[in-house]
Every structure is written in structure tokens, then in C-alpha cells.
Design brief:
By secondary structure, the protein is an alpha/beta fold. It is built from 13 helices and 22 strands. Strands 1, 2, 3, 4, 5, 6 and 17 form a 7-stranded mixed β-sheet that branches. Strands 8-15-9-10-11 form a 5-stranded parallel β-sheet, with helices on one face. The chain has a 5-stranded antiparallel β-sheet with strand order 18-19-22-21-20, sandwiched between helices. It is globular, with a radius of gyration of 24 Å. The protein starts with a strand and ends with a helix.
Amino acid sequence: MEKFDFIVIGSGPAGQRAAIQAAKLGKSVALIEMHTAVGGNCLHTGTIPSKTLRETVLYLTGWRQRGFYGKSYRVKERITAQDLIQRLDITTRHEIDIIQHQLYRNGVTSIVGKAKFLDPNTITVMDHEGNKAKYEAKKFMISVGTSPIQPPNTPFDGKRVLDSDHILEIDELPRTMIVVGAGVIGVEYASIYSALDIDVILVDGREEMLSFLDREIIDEFKHHLRDRGVAIRMGETVEKVEYLDKKRVKLFLSSGKQLRADMVLYAAGRQGNTADLGLENVGLEACPRGMLEVNEHYVTKVKNIYAAGDVVGFPSLASTSMEQGRHAACHAFGKTPDSRFSDFPFGIYAVPEMSVIGLTEKDCKEKGIGYEVGEARFRETSRGQILGLREGLLKLIFSLDDRRLIGVHIVGEGATELIHIGQAVMQLGGTMDYFVENVFNYPTLAEAYKIAALHAWNRFPD
């Protein structure tokens, strides 16, 4: 039986970072992945595929040039599903190569197979031919990720009724689509497919879309969705799904409405992949959604077993998962972790992008914090005009007490990049004066920070 200091189960962002961090601390490390290629859901079905799909769609449709050349402008006249998959395959192969090289360079042993705990220090791994091997370790980390929830009594066939894993394998693009679930995944796919000029209906049982975001940002986003024909049906739950014929599907809603489309995408939540890990053999129990409970250092109720990434729940971001994995590995071997999780940027790769960090107006009101707001439209910037942007809003929230920046909210081109300027200023305790008194490159979209700060400055009391 081979022995290691640290065994990581799952090779997504959390698993990769944890394994490499432990190796850099001089520990013997094994990384177990049930699939033949490393990368986890992030690389194969989640973050990387959906963002690659988005970028491919924006290029082939000529989306970014339509501000100049009109809605009928296209780079490619007839876009097929194969056009979208081609670029995805190239990106995936490249990412796999990078990850494998990083693991090899740091001396991490990669093992392919399905892991199951026998006791707190021992696991078995069954490979794809059914062969089993035992491994022992002082410390473990579970980073097995999540899978899409498929509601019971819903006739998934992977072609007309599908989940967010199936959507990457379609053979033909639909003319009409219904997306069930207005969370991050649902909103991203609904807006991406809308950019392909596919008629999209977005359905969700909740009254509000992405309730953790600032309402003004969401209102702006919804305006752009509706402007290009996306129908939004909030407060509506799906009662039943039926196949009409070989190409059409009908949805029955709780209100009595009926919707028809060529394709239905369910993006109604995810569950942890913990069912077959043998948790009962170590005294661990996942919640009904398959998630594991951890403390601030990502330790489970069993002191030598850690968990990180999507399997521990919110925020379920690749970016935070990486830091969770690194934090867990540091803590496991006595190094004081220095990760910051109090404020981190949240990016939503919809069309247009959204990204936020810090407090919303609602947060400020609930906490009794005096604040003032400054806003800038991207079309107000010269770079916005050069790029032909007709959408985009940057909103800054400043404390009335000390003028500190306490919230940044962006919707529009490059939002997930621009947010890091605000993040740096917030983390360093910067104030409105930083933006007002400093010089920004011209013309840039980042200049919107200065415009928004001046807007707030004009409103501040003397």
C-alpha cells in the first residue's frame, strides 16, 4: 500500500491548488481524478467551456461590432454547433496540458480512478478496468465538485431537454430555447444563446433574479435582455414537461401558462458529488444536496479530512475554490494561511458581463451605513465610443463618514477585468480622492472610475 502525506480527491481548481501547495511545502502528494483528464468540472463542463462558448459566440456573431454596423452584422453568416465546439476542444486540450505540466513539475503523483474511504487514513481507488488499489495518507482533501440537479419526473434526453453538462454536446442549435433557472449558470447561458439570435425565454420560481447583486445593475442587465427579445418569467415554476413531437417541447407552468420551444435547458441548482465516497466509513455525512460542512480552515468534522471548492457550497467560484484549496493545504501542514475571503470579486460571464465586490445599496441601508453613489455610463467614455458600446454602467459606493470606497458594481464590456481596480482600492482602504486626484490612461474604459468618482464628489456634503 502506497503512502502519502496528503491525498487530494478531485482535480478541479481547489484540488490542483491544494496538491501543488502541499508539494511546495515538501510533502508527498497524490491527486486522484476519476476521469482520464485532469481539470474537473471547471475545465470540462463548467467555467472554461461556458466562457469559451461565450467568447466564440461574441466573435462569430460580430456582437462587439454591431454598435457600428447594425444588428444584422455577422462575421459568419451561418453559425453551427460544430463551430462552437471546435474552439472549445482547442481550449480544453491546452488547459489540460498546462495543468498536467504543473502537477508533474511540482512532483504530484496523478492517479486515475474512483476513490472511496475505508477509514480516516485509507482509501481504495478503482480504475476504469475495475482494478483496485489502496492508498494511505496522513491528511486528505475532498474537492469532488458538483453536478447539475435533474428535477424528478422531468424527461431529460440530452438533446431537447438537457442540463448544463449536456448543453456542451448538442449537435444542432435550436431556433427557440427555454432556460429554467435564473441563477448564474442560467443567466449566462440564456444571454449567450440570445446573442446567437435564438429566441430565449428565462423562467424561475423566485421573484428576483440574482438577488445578491445591486438592483440597479440587475435592472440594467434585464433591460438589455428584453431589448434583444429575451422573455423573462420570474415567479413561475415548471409543473410538467412534455414532448410535442420530434423537435418541440412544451412546458406547463404553475400559473397555467404553457410555453413551447425546440430546446429546454435546466439550470436549477447543483449537488455535491459525495454519494460514493464512503463518507459513512469515516463518520462524515453530507447535507441533502451532497455538500460538506467545514470550518474557517476547510476542516470537516474529521480533523484530518479537509474539503474545498464547490462541494462546500457558496460562493462556488473557480477563483475562490483555488484559494480555499491553497488555504486548506497550508493549514494541514502548519503554515499560517494568508488568504483573504472577506471581500472577493464575483464575476458573471453573461452578455453583457457583470462583476461586483463589496456592499450594495441595500446592504448599506440594512447596516445603517451612510453612503453616496457615483455612476458612469461606458458610452460617456471616449473608449466606449471607439468600441461602439451602447451598454455598460459602473457604479461606486462611498462611505459618507470617511469617503472610503465600500462597493463596486459593474455591468458591461470587460466588467470582470475592470472590477480588479476597485478591488485593489478597497483592500488598501482607498477613498474617492484616489480616483479624483489620479491620472488614468486615455482613452480607456477604466476612466469610468474617475467619471463615477467625480459624479459622487459633486454629491458629497461640504
